[in-house]
Design a protein that fits this description.
Elements lengths: L13 H12 L3 E2 H4 L5 H6 L4 E4 L3 E2 L9 E2 L9 H11 L4 E6 L10 H14 L4 E5 L7 H9 L4 E3 L9 H4 L5 H14 L4 E8 L5 H13 L4 E6 L16 H14 L3 E4 L9 H11 L1
Parallel strand pairs: 2-5, 3-4, 5-6, 6-7, 7-8, 8-9, 9-10
Antiparallel strand pairs: 1-2
C-alpha cells in the first residue's frame, strides 16, 4: 500500500474536461496521460500539459516507463502545427514539449522538436518553451538542431544512478546523458538547463548525492527529484518509499551544491510546476 502522501484525486472539473477535449480534437498526445502521471488532475485543472510529440510508441525498453514500446511508423508532419494551435486555444504562456525516443529516425526526431518550437513561436507571442529531450543517440548534430530553434529551457533527465542503468535504462548511457547537458550549456550562452531523478529504484543515499553533484558539475540550473511509482504490472518494482522529510533534506543538499532551483517531493515530476520552477529561478538571477 502506498503511503498517504502519495495519494491523489482525479479531477473531473470543467478545465480538466476542456483540456482533454482540446487534446482529442487536435489528435495530440500528452506525457501526462501516456505516462500515467499522478499529477494529471492538478495540471489539467491549471490548464497546463506536457505535449508528447513523435507519436505514442517508444523504441527504447526502459523498465520504469508506462509509454507504449515497439516499432513506430513514420512521422506526423502536421503535428507541430496542431500543437501550436492547441497551445493557442489553451492560452498557455508556458509549454513543455517532450517525446518518445525515436531511434528509428536519422536525427532522432530533433527536426520535429525544432519545427514544433518554431510553430509555437509563430502562433503565441511571449510563450516560454521548455523541451524535455531524449539523448538522440549521442548525436551532437541533433542536439544543435534543437538548440538552433532557441528553446528557453532544455531538460534531459538522468533518471537514476549509473549502477542501475542496465535495469532502468538499458539502451541509454549515463555518461552520454551528462555530456548532452554539458554540451547544451556550453553551446548556448545563458541557456537554462534542467535534469531530474526518480527515487525508489534501489539506489543508495550516497548514490543520489553523487549523481546530484555530477549533474551540477555540468552546469545544470534546475533539478527535480520525485518518487518512482511503478506504472504497470510488469514494470520495475518500487524498492523504497522516501518520506517528504527526506525529499526536503535532498532539496537543501541540492541548494548547497549550487542549483538555482530544486523541486523535490514525492509527487514531483519533470514538468510538475515547471512554470513556477522557472519563475523561481528568474527571481534569483
Amino acid at each position: 500500500m502506498r503511503p498517504n502522501w502519495l495519494r491523489t484525486k482525479l479531477s473531473t472539473s470543467k478545465n480538466f474536461n476542456e483540456i482533454k477535449g482540446i487534446l482529442r480534437e487536435n489528435k495530440l498526445h500528452t506525457v501526462c496521460e501516456e505516462a500515467l502521471c499522478p499529477n494529471i488532475g492538478e495540471c489539467f485543472e491549471q490548464r497546463t500539459a506536457t505535449f508528447l510529440i513523435l507519436g505514442d510508441t517508444c523504441t527504447r525498453q526502459c523498465g520504469f516507463c508506462a509509454v507504449k514500446k515497439g516499432s513506430p511508423f513514420g512521422v506526423d508532419e502536421g503535428e507541430p502545427l496542431r500543437i501550436a494551435e492547441a497551445v493557442k486555444e489553451m492560452n498557455l504562456q508556458y509549454v513543455v514539449i517532450t517525446s518518445v525516443t525515436r531511434d528509428d529516425l536519422p536525427d532522432g526526431g530533433a527536426s520535429v522538436y525544432a519545427q514544433t518550437i518554431q510553430r509555437i513561436r509563430e502562433s503565441i507571442r511571449g510563450c516560454t518553451i521548455e523541451v524535455l529531450i531524449p539523448d538522440f543517440g549521442g548525436s551532437s548534430e541533433a542536439l544543435e538542431t534543437v538548440l538552433d530553434a532557441q528553446p528557453d529551457i532544455l531538460n534531459h533527465n538522468i533518471e537514476t544512478a549509473p549502477r542501475l542503468y542496465s535495469q532502468v535504462r538499458p539502451m541509454a548511457d549515463y555518461e552520454r546523458s551528462l555530456k548532452l547537458l554539458k554540451n547544451a550549456k556550453e553551446t548556448v550562452n545563458g541557456l537554462t538547463t534542467k535534469s531530474g531523478l526518480m527515487l525508489g529504484l534501489g539506489e543508495e543515499w550516497n548514490e543520489i548525492i553523487s549523481v546530484m553533484q555530477a549533474i551540477r558539475d555540468v552546469g545544470c540550473d534546475i533539478l527535480t527529484l520525485g518518487q518512482y511509482l511503478s506504472p504497470r504490472r510488469n514494470a520495475l518494482p518500487i524498492r523504497r518509499y522516501y518520506t517528504p522529510e527526506e525529499f526536503t533534506m535532498l532539496k537543501v543538499e541540492g541548494e548547497r551544491m549550487g542549483f538555482l532551483h530544486v523541486e523535490s517531493g514525492p509527487l514531483v515530476r519533470s514538468s510538475y510546476h515547471a512554470k513556477a520552477q522557472t519563475n523561481a529561478l528568474v527571481a534569483k538571477v
